[in-house]
């Protein structure tokens, strides 16, 4: 039997982070957590590029642009979609997830998907750390 297991070491790696501005109170906390996690695993601050986008729907487009540059070993995608009274939640959350998955398959660049999809603002705040 052959077992492959990656180790969480980021030394020598470059990472892009795409962050949605919509619900910035939540996404800024997600960004803080992502940056802290990268630093804890040896990714230098100068090896991280952050791109802010309007909302979760735009995350896949910018993630793809960053992935196709060949400059990054991984792309972290951050956002928050909170259910309202319309179907907008389902459309945005689903398209963000599908879009990011498509980018990973098309480019071969690992995508870390942390777009929260919650029922309430309180749930999003609890999950943002």
Looking at this protein, list some descriptive labels.
129 residues, 4-stranded parallel β-sheet, 41% helix, alpha/beta
Description:
Helix content is 41%, strand content 22%. The protein is built from 4 helices and 4 strands; from the N terminus they run βαβαβαβα. The termini are far apart. The mean pLDDT is 94.
Topology:
Layout: E1 15-20, H1 24-40, E2 48-53, H2 59-67, E3 74-82, H3 88-107, E4 111-118, H4 121-127
Parallel strand pairs: 1-2, 1-3, 3-4
Helix-strand string? EHEHEHEH
How would you sum up the global shape? globular
Distance between the termini: 39 Å
Mean of residue pLDDT values: 94
What is the gist of this entry?
The protein has 129 residues and is α/β, with parallel strands linked by helices.
């Amino acid at each position: 039997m052959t077992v492959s297991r990656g180790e969480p070491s980021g030394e020598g790696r470059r990472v892009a982070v795409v962050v949605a501005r919509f619900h910035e109170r939540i996404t800024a906390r997600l960004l803080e957590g992502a940056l802290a996690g990268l630093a804890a695993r040896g990714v230098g601050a100068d090896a991280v590029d952050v791109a802010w986008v309007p909302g979760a729907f735009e995350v896949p487009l910018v993630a793809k642009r960053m992935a196709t540059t060949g400059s990054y070993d991984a792309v972290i995608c951050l956002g928050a979609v909170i259910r309202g009274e319309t179907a907008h939640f389902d459309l945005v959350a689903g398209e963000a997830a599908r879009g990011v998955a498509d980018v990973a398959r098309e480019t071969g660049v690992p995508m870390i998907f942390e777009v929260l999809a919650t029922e309430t603002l309180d749930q999003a705040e609890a999950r943002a750390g």
